[in-house]
Recover the amino acids of this structure.
DNA sequence: ATATTTGTGGAACAAAAGTTCCGTTAATAT
DNA sequence: ATATTAACGGAACTTTTGTTCCACAAATAT
């Protein structure tokens, strides 16, 4: 048999994701990733293919981990309004905690690339639909349990919630302060009843 | 005196803006702009400075024209709820009319660059604040005229409206269909009362 | 211990990006 | 008509980007 890889495949993929997330696809060069991660050029190309393939892999990884976790929360929560509130708090906190205001990788990527790259567009679309379905399902359960009124159509409410979560990711790049986030979250949640 | 420019300075600036708007800062090369606009390299650099300066000029142009127009509408409208509704309809239409789904140049630019470029961050922040003030002023007038109830704080409602408009620009990159937009707009406007 | 086979280091490269420079051209003020 | 001065065309150049290739290294099955 042949020798084994000296680097952890998942770890490098994760770090590459952070690069693309932070600086965008066109703003990140293979060289930067190599410098930071210390693996050799040939290993990078050998393992992940070219730059675009690597990017697509990181986007899928985001979908499977970050988006996946949110969907799991929505699928399993016993307290729907509380979980929705929590997601908004998390969105706010990620904008003011120590680390960078990276926003959402999926949002950043679709804004940069979705018009020009069909594969990115497809991933992004699938991601949106999966999230919408998870929110819709959770809202339905919330309504059945009496945690939410039946005044709103579940899918419409789901779409509205997502619109406001995405709006917050844009706000995170706009120099808005905490009060702005609090106002938006308060007003949005006033509809989630 | 010297000879006059063979190109229209404003027109080239406008076309350069469309490039950056469509393909992003890092996705657009000076060469592409030159190829399309037909002016010479030296004229471009002579007139607008380097690529980044040109970009900054186009971003300011957007602020002065597109954002300026929205602010003007809000400052002068006699029917505030109607104007707000109109802005949402325009946001929706721009996603489905013949031309490209470019989204909002200000949103695209801040998502791509605001973390890394202080000057972009400043323009983007100022743009947000100017818009928020215009919405807030309009909402106050609407409340005084009895077109809107006084249940909502004007500034909080303004922030909420902007959050949903920006959310729509993200939706325009997400492969969402008309029904998604209609649900979001209906739910958002249900709060604008 | 060796053969096998894949990983690794790094040289090398073509193309593109971003910019500068300069000789030439052409408006216009006088 | 000419001098003046800025615009123009395009050659040229330095980096950076994205990628390939190959000689060498090392893990493991036998």
């Amino acid at each position: 048999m042949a020798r084994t890889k000296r680097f952890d495949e998942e770890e490098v993929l994760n770090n590459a994701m952070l690069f693309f997330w932070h600086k965008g696809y066109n703003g990140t060069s293979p060289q930067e990733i190599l410098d930071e991660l210390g693996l050799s050029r040939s290993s990078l190309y050998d393992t992940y293919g070219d730059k675009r393939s690597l990017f697509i892999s990181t986007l899928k990884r985001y979908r499977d981990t970050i988006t996946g976790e949110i969907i799991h929360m929505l699928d399993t929560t016993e307290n729907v309004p509380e979980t929705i509130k929590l997601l908004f708090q998390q969105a706010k906190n990620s904008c003011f905690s120590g680390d960078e205001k990276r926003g959402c990788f999926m949002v950043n990527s679709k804004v940069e690339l979705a018009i020009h790259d069909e594969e990115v567009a497809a991933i992004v679309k699938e991601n949106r639909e999966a999230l919408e379905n998870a929110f819709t399902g959770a809202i339905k359960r919330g309504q059945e349990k009496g945690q939410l009124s039946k005044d709103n159509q579940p899918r419409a409410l789901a779409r509205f919630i997502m619109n406001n979560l995405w709006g917050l990711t844009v706000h995170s790049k706009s120099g808005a302060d905490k009060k702005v986030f609090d106002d938006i979250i308060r007003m949005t949640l006033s509809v989630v009843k």
In short: Chain A has a mean pLDDT of 96. The CA atoms of residues 96 and 184 of chain A lie 15 Å apart.
